[in-house]
Fold this sequence. Notes:
Chain A has helices spanning about 5-10, 15-20, 25-35, 40-55, 60-75, 95-115, 120-125, 290-300, 310, 325-335, and strands at about 130-135, 140-145, 150-155, 160, 170-180, 190-195, 200, 205-210, 215-225, 225-235, 240, 245-250, 255-260, 265-270, 285-290, 305, 315-320, 340-345, 345-350. Chain A is an alpha+beta fold and about 350 residues long.
Amino acid sequence: MRKTLVVEDLLLDETFLNYYFKSDERDIFDWEVRLEERPEDQIIINEAILLLDKLSLKFSPAQIKKKYLKLYNNIDFDEKVLKSPFWVKNIWFGAAAILALTLFSGIYYFYFQNNPSQKYTLLINQSNINLIEKINKSNKPLLINLSDGSSVMLYKNSRLSYPLKFSDIDRKVYLEGDAFFEIAKDISHPFFVYANDLATKVLGTSFMINAPKTKSYIKVLVKTGKVSIYPIVRNSKGMELNQKLATVITQNQAVNYDINNARFEKEIVAEPTVIKQLKAYDFDFTNVGAKEVFEEIQKAYGIKIIYDENIFNNCPITASLSDEPLMGKIDLVCKAIEANYELIDGQVIITGKGCN
Amino acid sequence: MNHNTDSFFVDKLLLSALRSGDEKALNHLFSNNYNRLFRAGLRWCNDSELTEDCIQLVFLDLWKYKMSISDINSFEAYLMGSLKKRIVKELSRKENKNVSIGIINETLLISTSSYEEIFIQQETDESQKLNLKNAMNQLTPRQKEILVLRYFEEDSFKDISIKTGLQVDSIYKTLHEAIRKLKLILVK
């Protein structure tokens, strides 16, 4: 007869404590598997975790947010930034490459300052669909919504070119700089990001690409799902993807492509647990009001959601939204609270009867 | 004691984002590392207020000097190092003498009274605070000691047995009693 799970037992169970404190890989794995197989245990386990958080003197996320606010208010964001010599920024090269770079970097530095990146320009010129370009010069990441529901967070000093409406065959965008992608699943239309001599192909997943303008590498980090990466080859037919040299990376893997040597270096991330994404928000909700969910989404994406608090206040939501792009998140939430949404002028408007 | 879930690679991305003035990267680093920095700081100086002030200063400096930091292999290690230096500096200033970093390197066991104080302080609800105080008062010194060793120091039952000289059985019994008393109050 299986004994029902009780909080005291968990707190005395060495394997559970190893799972909580992350001190034993095997125990972490076993408990994760157990949770998947017996989701009904989640409630008791959450109780145990809450108790352990207090006993180990952890501050709650809400408390930490307050402390961050204190820090935030003490920072002078307009203060003149202490500039460093540009070669300090080249931290991702091996020793040999650093030597080569310091010989040529004087030239490259000034050259790329005055001319748009050749690679990016070449790539967009190859496109036979009309493209829109968004450039982010501001300090805050820029949110871009694509016609298929995917969302892109474009970081500072980066640009993205994309079609207003994707073609019937596939979805192609062109990146220079840094961006975090959340791609809507569409198996019949693979999604490609072209950047710095590499094309990253995805079906539906979330990942980060760093394709700096003045460097000869590109980094791809996968948060969820799988991507395949192909070097772009220029030949008599124009531009092609080198299928033979393609490499696939999945969750918890990262790859570094050295353009000069046309080589992939795969890195396995040491921890088996999910890589934390760069946004400091957690989209897992258990029985929270619709208001809190909308607040989180607004803060994370910097968009405004307009809804009637009185109508939707009592609607409880239990959902895990972190793998969805922005519109996917809103779609799911609206389904849960039986509401409709419209995107007007960059704002989301929610209408419905509520749940009373 | 390594809880590093951010890989080497993610740290590089974070540094890059930080340097381009992305405040969200700062937020991420702050939120992810706060608890472990707090606990490390407590072990170094046994003073929760000083630790929290120093953490604020460490992140202020991180933001101020983000352009001139060179290679960071691990933000966790970097922040821990910065915090230690900062705590030494502040302690020296406070006590008006040079606190040697060598003394701080000994991992002091946090005293049970400090633990109790912070445990109660972290509760935001005032009425709960009183309940927690009462609950704590019902625990024996031995119960409190084992609570600290198991849940704050993260010692295994075997290690606790070595440190206290008690049998593992008796440690389980003691801890079970302590949790039973606290659970009634803590789990609403």
